[in-house]
Amino acid sequence: MSKVFGAFAVSILLVGLLAADCDDDPENLLAGINCAFDLGIAGWTALNGQLYHDSGDGHPSAGSAYAYADAPSDWFAMLNDACILIPPSEKYWFGAWATLEPTSDDSTRCEVRFQVYDNSGCTGSTVSMPSTSWVDTRTTSWVLIDGEFTAGLLPQWAQLYALCMADASPFAVLIDSFFLMEDPRLFIDGFESGNCFNWSFCPMGGPV
């Protein structure tokens, strides 16, 4: 029962987090770097393909990045110009939302990636490159692209990318609401270990 309640509580928490505008979320380390594209695509650069602003569609509110790859290219990448501080020794949850434009190739998939450095200029060799799994965006509904990683023991800095690929081009994807936060899915109720600290009643030996 405790695990069921724990899963339910986490689901409610995530619904609240994912419904909020990423720029307004105090837990989001990407707030302030134009993660929501409400007014444009300032701070973002297309590394391959073309990047535009869509003022009508978005998740959860209007405004998103319109990523386009034309033939013969079969991939698109976008980079945020900021070098983002990642506090140490935390487990992080990160990602974005995406949806496929209806006229695109239906093999399109996307991922979110960080290139992590040990300096505040985000220069030199990367320390690590955490990324989400490739997520199938063959739907006109918004889908979550997410992953997790554990930060190093010392402060690190990172640059944020989104990449999309398809078996054929042209294709276009709308991308919105990038986030990076301490992982809220780590729900610890103490019951699995028998630790009842902060609970008003717990039978000796834990749950049955």
List keywords for this structure.
Jelly Rolls; mainly beta; 37% strand; 11 strands; globular; 208 residues
Secondary structure layout plus pairing:
Elements: H1 2-19, E1 44-48, E2 50-54, E3 64-69, E4 75-80, E5 84-86, E6 91-100, E7 109-117, E8 135-136, E9 143-150, E10 156-165, E11 171-182
Antiparallel strand pairs: 1-4, 2-3, 3-11, 4-10, 5-10, 6-9, 6-11, 7-8, 7-10
Please state the structural category. mainly beta
Largest sheet, in brief, is: 6 strands, antiparallel
Radius of gyration: 19 Å
On the 0 to 100 scale, the average pLDDT is 82
Compute the number of strand runs: 11
Output the CATH topology. Answer: Jelly Rolls
Give the CATH architecture.
Sandwich
The CATH class assignment is Mainly Beta
Shape, per Cα inertia axes: globular
- How many domains, in number, for the residues? 1
How much helical structure, as a percent, in the residues?
under 10%
In DSSP terms (H or I, runs of 4 or more residues), the helix count works out at 1
The portion of residues forming beta strands comes to 35-45%
Regions with little confidence, pLDDT below 50 for 5+ residues: 1-17, 188-199, 201-208
Secondary-structure element order, as H and E?
HEEEEEEEEEEE
- Beginning-to-end CA distance, first to last residue: 9 Å
State the CATH superfamily name: Galactose-binding domain-like
